[in-house]
Amino acid sequence: MIRTTFVSRLARALRRDKIRVLFAVKNGFSLATAWSLIEELLADRRFVVRLTPTHALTESLLFEGQANKFAPLKVDLAEAMATKWDYILHTHLPFPENEHPAVNIYTPHGGAFGNKPFGNDLSYSAWVSQQPGLDVYWGLSSNERTHIESKLGASPFDGPKRFVPVGYFEMDKLIKPSPSGANVLARYGLDTSRRTILLTSTFGPISLFATFGAKALERLSRLKCNVICTGHPHIWTGYYGEHSESERELLSSLREIERSASNVRVLQTLDLMPLLKAADVFVADHTSVMPTYNVLGKPSLFYLHPKQRFTDDRIETLYKQVSRRFEDLEELEENCSQAFRQVESRTFAADRSLGQFVFGSTPGHAVATAKKFLLNRN
User: CA 345, 346, 348, 354: dihedral to nearest 10 degrees?
Assistant: First the structure.
């Protein structure tokens, strides 16, 4: 009995010496963007890692396979907020209010800034930086800090709140070796000898899908190439689980095209990095995936809705500079054909300036940088 008590006390003491990290999870996208860091910390015995859902719908908004990752690490929100943590990491707002002092860290859930207005005509980055309870902002690069300070007209990081350029965890997977594009295509039953278009869209009324519906996919399916179609997680799950009638019609139409065209795959996935590597041409709107793809230096086509407003002139210039723009389906098809001809003839001039501006000149070390920060108990 004495021996058992001593061992349990020792175990508790050792546990107190560990670095306790809580990840506040809003939805499947939230979990996916943080998962690389979560895995790294779980493999290191110096850390105790748990996940908590930030609202009642969190678990219903997980994607296939994520529930098995989430459940073993789950702590109910009320219990989590009553527990002592060294760090609480957030990919979305608002920050849950913890009963004990902890370092609250925001880490971006997307690979962009300044690509759309948010929060009283600010950018999402600038809006987040002002939120109460935030202690540390893990940014994509020093350029994001400059963007935030420019939008606010002052620096929110001159006081105790800090900005640390960590990077984007998903970018690590893009930079590191991974299955070849041919292996990715084979996994989905596509012709590995054909060129591939990746079509994606953000959500909202001025997105590519909202403008063209499934017609963009239908037009591209006529080309002699593979077409992989995906989109922002809200397209698949709805915003907080609710789909509008037009969104249901879109999903039905996309699936119908997939059934009728052997060269088309419609993928409800959060694992975009293998798809970006497999693609020869990327077709998108003002989605935050555009800077990530641009790091690869491959051709992209960009739809800019007349009502779309960027909140950073430099970002807008670079989105336009690195891509071919299209305004209708005829231009979309013709620009794709031209891009393929350039790829075939090796005459495409790679311009990575958008990705370099957003992520800095040497991306791919975000997980290691974040872990070092946590180990130093900053």
Answer: 150
3-state SS of the chain: helix, strand, coil percent to 5?
45, 15, 40
The DSSP output letter for 88 is E
Per residue in 266-290, pLDDT tens?
Answer: 999 999 999 999 999 999 999 999 9
In whole angstroms, give the CA distance from residue 180 to residue 367: 23
Q: Any bridge partners for residue 22, and if so which?
A: 50, 88
Cα atoms in the 13 Å half-sphere on the side-chain side of 41: 27
Tens digits of per-residue pLDDT, 294-338? 999 999 999 999 999 999 999 999 999 999 999 999 999 999 999
Classify 89 as helix, strand or coil.
strand
Residue type, 15: R
Q: What region, left, alpha or beta, does residue 166 occupy, with left being phi > 0 and alpha being psi -120 to 50 degrees?
A: alpha
Distance between CA 199 and CA 336 in Å, rounded?
11
DSSP state of 262: T
Q: Which residue shows structure tokens 């420019």?
A: 150
Which H or E element spans position 51?
A: strand 47-53
Q: Taking the complete model, does pTM exceed 0.85, yes or no?
A: yes
Q: Which residues contact 232 (CB under 8 A, 6 or more apart)?
A: 200, 201, 202, 203, 207, 287
